[in-house]
Amino acid sequence: MLCANEEVTIGNPMSAVLTAEPDVRAAMREIGARARAAARVVAIAPAEQKTRALTAAARLLRERSQDILAANARDLVEARSRGLTPAFIDRLKLDERRVEAIAIAVEDIAALPDPVGRVLATFERPNGLKIERVATPLGVVGVIYESRPNVTADAGALCLKSGNAVVLRGGSDSFHSSAAIHACLAAGLAEAGLPEAAISRAPFASREAVGEMLSGLDGALDVIVPRGGKSLVDRVQREARVPVFAHLEGVVHVYVDETADLEMARAILVNSKMRRTGVCGAAETLLIARAGVARLARPLLDALIAAGCAIRGDAEICARLPDAVPATEDDWRAEYLDAILSVRVVSGLDEAIRHIETYGSHHTDCIITEDKAAAQRFLAEVDSAIVLHNASTQFADGGEFGFGAEIGIATGRMHARGPVGVEQLCTFKYRVRGQGQTRA
pTM score > 0.90 for this model? Predict the structure, then answer.
């Protein structure tokens, strides 16, 4: 936690030292104004120049790894003194391997095709007008996130690659780690001759800075992306005065159809739930078709229990599995983010789809089946950002989609839905070429 009397240095172009009780509102609006000016530069920057900036940033992350680890050690001391959980400490902690992974991620983003200027469609009107739909940057992206220091690098790199400026506000728990990582990104921009304000960082741990970003920084921000827990995302969605790319929850379902291959279903289900229980793509509810329950239920549930998962079941599941805890209505809506799974027997595909529509969060849902017609219906009718057939829900990840990385997963119905990578951080405009045409 930033102490009231602690000094914080903002990287150039705002290099002045802010001391106790700074005017957060004025400083944040100045950061927004500088980011808006930088956005005009990076929007038209050549692809090679953006790549040079990111490549330099990756090199500096490696060269300054000891500085980053020292900053992270400060954050860890403060986190432990506050009694934060081991799982939280693990998300916050950096080591040489994790710093190297951050550098590699930045290099991977640098190597992606430049999304800016892509011609998305072309057509010619009967009057001879030639029209192109062309990808353009969104402008200035605000990213508000919690404890993971790597988000500083991922978000900064993704926004720069897509021709956007970004204002980052990391969690107070990773304050020093994020500052050290951000310094590498800013130095990479300077080496490439781009404005350092293109990747700006809020130098305040106070929640007042979040409030200023939600207000839009006096019109500077074009979109906000929250990365964190339910309370953060809920606040952003309620209070933001600019569009938001986000998901509130990941209530993820796996529906096992009566035709499912048992071995495939077992492998997919255990991976979907237990590979990492705390990610938004982790399965939270299992639905089993009644016609297949005698063949499938006990082997699947035994495999989950063997992997350390607790089961909360409906009456039929509890009758088959004495160790299961009876599920409540709240369990069908729960995002456990833990080794707990709610399980229900459904009459078939129609009821499975109704259950997902009633209790789901439109994030990620999966069907396991050998029936191609059932799979096609599920993929067409389940209204989630990501729908899968015979594959683990833990593939709900921008890196696994080939996006290089993601700034988050969006479950709304704006143009960015699912993993938000460099292409989704672009909008478009129309270029119209004529030869003197006028309208009657």
Answer: no
